[in-house]
Specification:
single chain, DUF2283, mainly beta, DUF2283 domain-containing protein, Enolase-like, domain 1, 1 helix
Length: 73
């Protein structure tokens, strides 16, 4: 797993494998927090496996130390 973070966009991406091959994402499923502030996007392949998650509004959901230590995308 690998986490990257873009502080300007307040967006983090968690890759569940080593890398995501170009073209391997079949579709993206969107989830919104009922309380607002964070949107979660799950990238899924053609077999239904989740390849990664994008957190929009990451500061509302993820540990600040985790974001501070994450490299830029």
């Amino acid at each position: 797993m690998k986490l990257t973070y873009d502080p300007e966009a307040d967006a983090a991406y968690l890759t569940l494998g080593d890398t995501i091959a170009p073209g391997s994402i079949s579709h993206t499923v969107e989830f919104e927090s009922p309380a607002g502030g964070t949107m979660l996007l799950a990238d899924v392949d053609t077999n239904g496996r989740i390849l990664g998650f994008e957190f929009i509004g990451a500061q509302h959901t993820l540990d600040p130390a985790l974001l501070r230590d994450a490299p830029l995308p």
